[in-house]
């Protein structure tokens, strides 16, 4: 089974009337399997309203990655960790009509798997107030039976899948101050049912009564943040 690196993206643009605007795009989801030692994904940088080359800097705003995890930006065969200082000439957008295509290389660590967040700021070295920030969330559990796991909470996948009458989801809440729930959603993204996870229980029983056969999704929400989503089928 494949797990997925779910990329949760947050865009923050600094738009000044006299400044150059930066934009960034990446794929939203990248498949990740336990046998992978790393996973590459494309990143496209662009700038508008410019008349000269723009040198791009990269810095970390915040992160929750383990010490042995890494994220590198690769261009023209060279890769630099985001935890290192980028040379000023490494990333350059030549004109407003050009897109600078680079590669993100995520390297998972060997510790306990779960979610890792990192917020990167891509900025114009000549005008630091012109920037775009992107928050990337890696869901890199290498256990095909695990939807999410960290030091506070572990949640399994719905089984059996496909589901007939009832589906089950195992979980373990290890911290009393965490609020978690599971949303059942149809293919349109509408929430069918919202089920809180109790720290005094460890199994969620899900009834398919009243639901038509087809494809559905379940989303884990931790402290009001959508954390992980997977598909299940009702027969």
Describe this structure in words.
This protein is an all-beta fold. The protein has 2 domains: 22-139, Uncharacterised protein PF12988, DUF3872 (Immunoglobulin-like, Sandwich); 146-234, Immunoglobulin-like. The protein has strands at 3-6, 12-13, 21-26, 29-32, 39-48, 54-63, 70-75, 78-81, 91-93, 99-107, 115-124, 127-139, 146-149, 153-156, 166-173, 180-185, 191-196, 203-207, 214-222, 225-234. Strand 19 and strand 20 form a beta hairpin. The protein is elongated and about 60 Å long. Mean pLDDT is 77; it is low at 1-20 and 28-35. InterPro entries: Secre_tail (IPR026444).
Shape: elongated
Assign the CATH topology of the largest domain. Immunoglobulin-like
Number of helices: 0
Structure summary, number of beta strands:
20
Q: Would you state the CATH class of the largest domain? A: Mainly Beta
By CATH, the superfamily of the largest domain comes out as Uncharacterised protein PF12988, DUF3872
Low-pLDDT windows of residues: 1-20, 28-35
* Structural class designation: mainly beta
Mean pLDDT: 77
- The N- to C-terminal Cα distance equals 20 Å
- Count of structural domains: 2
Radius of gyration: 21 Å
CATH architecture of the largest domain: Sandwich
H/E element sequence:
EEEEEEEEEEEEEEEEEEEE
- The spatial strand order of the largest sheet comes to 2-12-11-6-9
The residue fraction in helices comes out at under 10%
Largest sheet: 5 strands, antiparallel
Q: Tell me what portion of residues adopts beta-strand conformation.
A: over 45%
């Amino acid at each position: 089974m494949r797990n997925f690196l779910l990329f949760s993206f947050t865009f923050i643009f600094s738009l000044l009337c006299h400044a150059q605007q930066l934009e960034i795009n990446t794929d939203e989801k990248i498949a990740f399997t336990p046998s992978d030692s790393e996973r590459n994904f494309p990143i496209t940088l662009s700038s508008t309203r410019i008349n000269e080359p723009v040198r791009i800097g990269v810095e970390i705003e915040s992160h929750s990655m383990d010490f042995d995890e890494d994220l590198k930006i690769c261009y023209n065969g060279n890769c630099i960790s985001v935890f290192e200082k980028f040379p000023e000439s490494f990333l350059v957008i030549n004109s407003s009509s050009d897109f600078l295509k680079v590669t993100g290389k995520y390297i998972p660590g060997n510790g306990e798997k779960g979610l890792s967040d990192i917020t990167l700021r891509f900025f114009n070295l000549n005008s630091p107030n012109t920037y775009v920030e992107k928050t990337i969330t890696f869901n890199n559990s290498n256990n095909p039976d695990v939807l999410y796991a960290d030091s506070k909470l572990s949640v399994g996948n719905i089984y059996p899948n496909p589901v007939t009458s009832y589906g089950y989801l195992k979980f373990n809440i290890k911290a009393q101050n965490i609020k978690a729930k599971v949303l059942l959603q149809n293919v349109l993204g509408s929430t069918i049912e919202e089920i809180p996870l109790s720290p005094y229980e460890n199994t969620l029983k899900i009834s398919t009564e009243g639901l038509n056969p087809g494809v559905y999704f379940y989303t884990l929400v931790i402290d009001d943040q959508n954390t992980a989503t997977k598909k299940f089928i009702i027969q």
